[in-house]
Write a structure and sequence with these properties.
272 residues, alpha+beta, six-stranded antiparallel beta sheet, 8 helices, 51% helix, 12% strand, elongated
């Protein structure tokens, strides 16, 4: 990579299988803006980590040579990005020519013509965003504080966390909607079980749950099939499960069995 290479071209690496709306597009724009905001920067990289391994960490870089600098850090577990993730503090190298902490990263960086770098981490709600800027010359420094790059990182991390909460809320709404739509079918299936087994509602639901676990089918799918067939062909299995459910209910009922703090009284006719 030389000083005449434009840094406006974006190259996104990792998470290529993510669907539309993934953070990679936003990361690419963030990396570009970070490079623009940092004086003497020749390029930048941005990553998002959730602490669940490095295999699917979304990454965006402003030049293809920088992707190798990010990859070598994940592979070796050493470098400014892993260090910033571990400590939660800004981590950098003023002059990689004299850097001894990360030999593999140092070699790759010098091979690409990079002499200095700085990584800033931002943690929000289980997400850690990192911005790394690179310089062709020694002495590139970007620290936490009122710098344009740092403000950009703070805003981006807050936005990513908000987006994650929004997506989690959508998933929860979808689950609640599914539960509301399937509840009538489950109630009908429980009614059929109550009729076939002559049991109460709690036993009927417990029987349906046991059958779902035994057949490895979703409760709603099993309930739908039970309603369609009216329970025909499953009478014997349903009764067996119903008997187990009733026994479990009786065993758990208060007042059943001996008081654990007192021994049972001996039978009058037994020998002491």
């Amino acid at each position: 990579m030389d000083a005449t290479t434009p840094t406006r071209t974006l190259f996104e690496t990792g998470a290529s299988d993510l669907a539309e709306g993934s953070p990679v597009r936003s990361l690419a724009h963030l990396a570009e803006q970070a490079a623009w905001c940092t004086p003497d920067s020749c390029g930048a990289a941005a990553t998002v980590s959730t602490g669940q391994g490095i295999a699917d960490v979304p990454t965006a870089v402003t030049h293809p040579d920088l992707s190798a600098l990010v990859s070598v850090q994940w592979e070796s577990g050493e470098g400014p990005i892993p260090a910033a993730l571990d400590t939660g503090r800004a981590t950098g190298a003023d002059d990689l020519l004299h850097e001894s902490r990360w030999p593999e990263y140092r070699a790759k960086a010098l091979e690409a013509g990079v002499r200095s770098s700085a990584t800033l981490p931002y943690r929000r709600d289980g997400i850690t965003l990192t911005i790394t800027v690179y310089g062709f010359r020694p002495g590139l420094k970007v620290e936490k504080g009122c710098t344009a790059t740092d403000v950009l990182g703070e805003l981006a991390a807050t936005g990513l966390a908000r987006e994650r909460r929004y997506r989690d809320a959508l998933v929860e709404v979808d689950q609640l909607d599914t539960a509301l739509r399937t509840r009538p079918v489950v109630d009908q299936a429980c009614g059929i079980l109550m009729y076939v087994l002559g049991c109460d509602a709690d036993t009927a639901f417990d029987t349906l749950r046991r059958l779902s676990q035994r057949t490895n089918r979703k409760l709603s799918d099993l309930a739908g099939a039970l309603v369609r067939t009216r329970g025909h062909g499953l009478e014997a299995e349903l009764r067996s499960l119903g008997d187990k459910a009733r026994r479990g209910t009786r065993a758990a009922a208060p007042g059943n069995g001996a008081d654990p703090g007192h021994a049972a009284a001996p039978d009058a006719g037994s020998t002491p």
